[in-house]
Write a structure and sequence with these properties.
Elements (H helix, E strand, L loop, with lengths): L4 E2 L6 E6 H20 L9 H6 L11 H6 L8 H32 L11 E6 L1 H22 L6 H5 L6 H23 L1
Antiparallel strand pairs: 1-2, 2-3
């Protein structure tokens, strides 16, 4: 397992993933997209002009705790201002997060990740500056989703390290840590 490095000659951020790792990232990105699309953020309309001028987005905090964490209340002390802010911003934020996750999937597949990844295959990924930022943001969203589902809190590392290797929650926590490692190496490579 290696993270991202900067290619001095081209300035891109590069990483090599095993087929398993690349497929895991694709799965996490796909799950994030599915989660973002699960609750309708705004009514769909067929007229493109009407869609551009439509500001009838959601006004309530999402029911799913992960979505509530990804889209926190902007003004907790002012319910009316929070509802207005959510109405005008959440649909675009959801679309942006879904597009970022889709970029990860597209990049991995363009780099050679097949539908049925084979053992011994490696996927080389190179990210320019904009793609690197997109991946960093998506890594943040993935980590927030996993942390919320598992109930990860600051300072609770001993709890996770004490779990047996075959504990499913411990395995998901390992994925959380791995995505954090990828994010950290990508930040350093892009700097």
């Amino acid at each position: 397992m290696s993270g991202f490095t900067r290619v001095k000659k081209t300035g891109v951020c590069a990483a090599t993933f095993s087929a398993f790792e690349a497929d895991l990232l694709r799965s996490l990105a796909g799950q994030l997209i599915e989660l973002l699309r699960n609750e309708v953020a705004a009514p769909e309309t067929l007229d493109p002009l009407e869609q551009l001028l439509d500001f009838s987005g959601p006004t309530l905090v999402p029911e799913d705790p992960v979505l509530a964490r990804l889209f926190p209340t902007a003004y907790p002390e002012d319910a009316e201002a929070a509802a207005e802010f959510r109405r005008y911003t959440e649909s675009d934020l959801r679309n942006g997060k879904a597009a970022g996750a889709a970029t990860i999937i597209d990049t991995l597949e363009e780099a050679g990740l097949d539908e049925q990844p084979e053992d011994g295959v490696f996927i080389d990924v190179e990210l320019g500056p904009q793609a690197a930022v997109t991946w960093m943001r998506s890594f943040t969203d993935m980590r927030l989703a996993i942390a919320t589902r598992l109930g990860i809190e600051e300072g609770d590392e001993e709890r996770w390290y004490a779990l047996p290797d075959d504990d499913p929650e411990g395995q998901v926590h390992d994925i959380y840590e791995w995505v954090g490692y990828l994010q950290e190496t990508l930040v350093h490579a892009a700097s």
